[in-house]
């Protein structure tokens, strides 16, 4: 009797050729397809394709809302941008995918899980670290990595085993997408001197082709999470999809960067995240209005650590849980509305308000006669503020002895 194995199946080249390979190794393959908002993907067609190429069972898990509510939400609250640019598109979906794979394995008495990651990528670590954490007894198969297939060899293998893969050797892009964005690599993109061609993008128009008039929209936030677009309440998954359309049509969210992978190599990555670009810019702007100074200055330290943990496959870790608790506590006051201007690739906050949590006092900030700031107190404050430096210099003369040199 063949052993059951659950395969994380996307319908692409890597996971499609993995099915006959696993069959040849003696496995009955259960293909698990996670619907996390891959725009333009026909889940029924992907499900049928898995059984067509040899899976004994094909399961579609509809998880868009869970992905948005439980995985995108922490990234928004933490302003999580890896190396200051990447909103963790692929890294975010992996913990949810592994959770579902392990659940399916338990439900079907499978004792192994397979993925289509290569030995050079981050996903192999994300998949296997989470599997080990959730059920260390599960075996792991990684045919693309362990068999050392090149891209060309995979395509040849697919043809030999009648695996229909809509890809050619001349343009072998590797694309991963979900609600939060789209990642593209391989092919012509592997040379960092090559500009990304038009067909490398799929969620946005070029800024040059965007409308000549700016678009404006209002985003309402509650506890750090957007809950309404232009006054219309909607669940987060729907709001993200709507914003992807609006922002993408204005050329917003394109990212072309050299990235430091977890495995230690540099890679050229092309990302699109229109909704993320708008939401995270608006979120940070609202924090500037509502967070107390010391919290606002300290939070970026935690943000960088939590961002690296997500990227580095440490979603399941005590440190991540502890840092997320800090992030959540800061978001209790991040309530209000931000008006965004979208124009030819730029998403800019132009106005913001918070009826309940704004720390901006116009009477303190003004230079008019309405000024309520006690300017007389400033002199004493400055003297006390500089007291430690003044005493040190009086004793040691580090700088004062150099006067006149």
UniProtKB/TrEMBL annotation:
Pathway of action: Amino-acid biosynthesis; L-arginine biosynthesis; L-arginine from L-ornithine and carbamoyl phosphate: step 2/3
Binding site for L-citrulline: 86, 122, 126, 174, 259, 271
The enzyme's E.C. designation: 6.3.4.5
Subcellular location per the Swiss-Prot or TrEMBL entry: Cytoplasm
UniProt protein name: Argininosuccinate synthase
Binding site for ATP: 8-16, 116
Residues in Arginosuccinate synthase C-terminal domain copies: 173-391
Primary subcellular site in the record, as a coarse category: cytoplasm
Root EC class: ligase
Subunit description: Homotetramer.
Domain Arginosuccinate synthase-like N-terminal: residue ranges: 4-164
A single GO BP: argininosuccinate metabolic process
Family of this protein: Belongs to the argininosuccinate synthase family. Type 1 subfamily.
Binding annotation for L-aspartate: 118, 122-123
Catalysed reactions, semicolon-separated: L-citrulline + L-aspartate + ATP = 2-(N(omega)-L-arginino)succinate + AMP + diphosphate + H(+)
GO molecular function: argininosuccinate synthase activity; ATP binding
One Gene Ontology cellular component annotation held by this UniProt entry: cytoplasm
Source organism: Pediococcus argentinicus
InterPro entries from the UniProt entry: Arginosuc_syn_C, Arginosuc_syn_N, Arginosuc_synth, Arginosuc_synth_CS, Arginosuc_synth_type_1_subfam, AS_cat/multimer_dom_body, Rossmann-like_a/b/a_fold
Keywords, alphabetical: Amino-acid biosynthesis, Arginine biosynthesis, ATP-binding, Cytoplasm, Ligase, Nucleotide-binding
């Amino acid at each position: 009797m063949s052993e059951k194995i659950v395969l994380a199946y996307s319908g692409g080249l890597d996971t499609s050729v993995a099915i006959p390979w696993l069959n040849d190794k003696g496995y009955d393959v259960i293909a698990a397809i996670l619907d996390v908002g891959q725009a333009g993907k026909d889940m029924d067609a992907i499900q049928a394709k898995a059984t067509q190429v040899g899976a004994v069972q094909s399961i579609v898990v509809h998880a868009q809302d869970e992905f948005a509510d439980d995985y995108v939400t922490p990234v928004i609250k933490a302003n999580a941008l890896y190396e200051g640019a990447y909103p963790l598109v692929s890294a975010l979906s992996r913990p949810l995918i592994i959770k579902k794979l392990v659940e399916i394995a338990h439900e079907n008495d499978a004792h192994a899980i397979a993925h289509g990651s290569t030995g050079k990528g981050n996903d192999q670590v994300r998949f296997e670290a989470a599997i080990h954490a959730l059920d260390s007894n599960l075996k792991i198969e990684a045919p693309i990595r362990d068999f050392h297939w090149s891209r060309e060899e995979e395509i040849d293998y697919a043809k030999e085993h009648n695996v229909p893969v809509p890809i050619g050797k001349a343009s072998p892009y590797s694309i991963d997408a979900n609600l939060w964005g789209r990642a593209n690599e391989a092919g012509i993109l592997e040379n960092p001197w090559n500009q990304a061609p038009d067909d490398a993008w799929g969620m946005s128009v070029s800024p040059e082709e965007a409308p000549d008039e700016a678009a404006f929209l209002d985003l309402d936030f509650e506890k750090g999470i957007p809950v309404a677009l232009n006054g219309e309440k909607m669940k987060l998954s729907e709001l993200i999809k709507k914003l992807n359309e609006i922002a993408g049509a204005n050329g917003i969210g394109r990212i072309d960067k050299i990235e430091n992978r977890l495995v230690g190599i540099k890679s050229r990555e092309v990302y699109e995240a229109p909704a993320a670009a708008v939401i995270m810019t608006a979120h940070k702007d609202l924090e500037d209005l509502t967070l107390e100074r010391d919290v606002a200055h300290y939070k970026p330290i935690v943000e960088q650590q939590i961002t690296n943990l997500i990227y580095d496959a440490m979603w399941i870790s005590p440190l991540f849980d502890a840092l997320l608790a800090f992030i959540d506590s800061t978001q209790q006051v991040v309530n209000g509305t931000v008006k965004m201007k979208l124009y030819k690739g730029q998403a800019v906050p132009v106005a913001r308000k918070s009826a309940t949590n704004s720390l901006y006092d116009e009477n303190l900030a003004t230079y008019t006669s309405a000024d309520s700031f006690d300017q007389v107190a400033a002199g004493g404050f400055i003297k006390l503020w500089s007291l430690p430096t003044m005493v040190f210099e009086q004793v040691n003369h580090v700088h004062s002895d150099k006067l006149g040199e």
